[in-house]
Amino acid sequence: MTYWGKDAAKDLKTYRVSGDPELNRQVDCVPLIELENAIEDAVRINGSLTQDTAAQAAARVLGYGRRGAKITEVLTLAIKIALEDGKIVEKNGRLLPEE
After folding, report:
1. Do 6 and 55 meet the contact criterion of CB atoms below 8 Å apart?
2. Taking a C-beta distance cutoff of 8 angstroms, is the pair 97, 51 a contact?
3. Are 43 and 54 in contact (CB under 8 A)?
4. Distance (Å) of CA 37 to CA 11, 22, 40, 58, 92
5. 5 — pLDDT class (breaks 50, 70, 90)
6. Residue 96 forms beta bridges with which residues?
7. Model pTM?
8. Who has the most CB within 10 Å: 27, 71, 78, 90?
9. Residue by residue, what is the 3-state secondary structure of 56-92?
10. Rounded distance, CA 22 to CA 44, Å?
11. What is the DSSP letter of 19?
């Protein structure tokens, strides 16, 4: 996992996606802020998702065809931090865009 300083690039709203699956970055080389942004986009686009479907949608957006244990682990952490940062909210077991 690539970590940035506590407040580094908190205003970054994008994430990089390769057009070529062979050039995809390993998930642990993607900065956490980019993973959070992919989660936030997935929730905003879909409206209401479980944590599992949010992770699945974010994995697809990032170009990962399959979601193995490492991708699931890292995206679960990104969801936790996105919730803590107020980028998304959880109500009745569903993730929703921030209000």
Report:
1. no
2. no
3. yes
4. 10, 22, 5, 9, 22
5. low
6. 89
7. 0.79
8. 78
9. HHHHHHCCCCCCCHHHHHHHHHHHHHHHHCCCEEEEC
10. 28
11. S
Count of Cβ atoms closer than 10 Å to residue 46 Cβ: 14
On whether the CB atoms of residues 55 and 72 are closer than 8 A, the answer is yes
Question: Is residue 3 helix, strand or coil?
Answer: coil
Please give the Cα distance from 9 to 91 (Å, whole number): 27
Contacts of 43 (CB under 8 A, 6+ apart): 49, 54, 88, 95, 96, 97
Please give the Cα distance from 48 to 59 (Å, whole number).
17
CA distance 25 to 60: 13
Residue showing tokens 């995206």: 75
Strand residues in 1-99 grouped as ranges (E): 88-91, 94-97
Reported as a single tens digit per residue, the pLDDT across 24-62 is 677 777 888 889 999 999 999 998 999 999 999 999 888
What token pair was written down for 92? 């009745």
Q: What angle do CA 52, 89, 81 make, to 5 degrees?
A: 70
